[in-house]
Write the structure tokens for this entry.
Amino acid sequence: MIEIPRPVGLKNAYDVVVIGAGPAGSRCAKLIADRGLSVAVFEKRAEIGSPKRCAEGIGVKALQRMGYNGNERFVAQYIDGFYLYAPNGKEFVMDYGSPQGCVVERKVFDKFLAYDAAKAGAKVFTKIEVVDLLKDNGAISGVVIKYGEDVFEVKARVVVSAEGIEGKMARKAGIDNTNKLINVDSGYQYEMANLKLKDANKLYFYLGNEIAPRGYIWIFPKGDHVANVGIGIGGGAGVKRKAKEYLDSWIENHPEIFADASVIEENAGGIPVGGLLKDMVRDGFVVIGDAAHTVNPIHGGGMDEGTRAGEIAAEVICECLNREDVSHDALAKFNELWWKERGEKLRRIEKLRQVIERMSDDDLNFLADELTVQDIIDFAGGKNLRKLAKILLRRPKLIKLATILR
Ligand SMILES: Cc1cc2nc3c(=O)[nH]c(=O)nc-3n(C[C@H](O)[C@H](O)[C@H](O)COP(=O)(O)OP(=O)(O)OC[C@H]3O[C@@H](n4cnc5c(N)ncnc54)[C@H](O)[C@@H]3O)c2cc1C
């Protein structure tokens, strides 16, 4: 009998198997390995972090929470504020005076998270796809992996789905993470060089239904003449063209920035900007990150949220493994903790998104005249939405929208 070669270092069983080495999966794996448990991470891509599907912006606080000080080589650019433009061109400027965020190289950042997981003792595998789940009396008890043309079974006491927006294994575990079209933004992006930016330390956001229906266009600098230039637009009514077509038109209309620019990379991806899951666990199974739609619904940032979900999940999984109870009810503590810390806030932000997406450009301009830049920051963080409701009540045709914010 010919023995099929196994992936180097693969064991038959682990305490935890993590599906996907994106930010959520690697962060979760690291913290579980830190506690001395055995963890395998399976990533189907040949290179972790590549190709990127991200504008690569993240807050300094989030990096600090993960133990980074901002001097790591994944940092492409420090960010000390932003410019935001209403449809009529009204400019909002926020200058924090010191770096509050950065634009990272996802191809390096995701690897750093995977390095950290490996250093803590997790075993990370690339080019291995999880194609099915093992079940024992209805409980998830491991995964089926595909390595080249061969398949192997790997047992696990808990399986974590950190598969990103695809989330197929979560569905196989019985968690319905199919999302409504309205809750999924289409993203399209170029990394461009030789652009002319007035300030390379700030992010740029451009709003308007004509340029980006129910979304926005962004420029996230990665140096003084390099930037991610992208668009996220909402699914559903009002969208007449593809995301790329909207973005191309806008770039053509801004020769002052792009006349001499070149495209260095092109990428696209879906962003789950809503549809939070009440129950993210099953017997022996937890879903985190984009696979559980834990993205900020107003700006589409998911690295901070995904890694935080990974941290909370790691804590609960370790506790459950120590107590030798990985039933749905025991793992449900993850639902409780995550909803308390993140979910309620994200739900408020989702309502804000539902309000903004129903506004015409004229309504958005009206709003821009009533708001300060601090209001915009508060609203995007799910704070002080009562103020927004009060402003909406001043315009008869927006009164109905104010009720969404209740
Ligand atoms: C255009 C665009 C711009 C964005 N901009 C930003 C931004 O500026 N800032 C920000 O914070 N967020 C941004 N996001 C969102 C951000 O990219 C995601 O929220 C984040 O990557 C989610 O992390 P994750 O670990 O949950 O999933 P992912 O990063 O998607 O990782 C999932 C991993 O699982 C792997 N995988 C999937 N299925 C399997 C399987 N069956 N077996 C093995 N491996 C599997 C995938 O290959 C992938 O590597 C943007 C998204 C898009 C599309």
Summary: The longest strand covers residues 150-161.
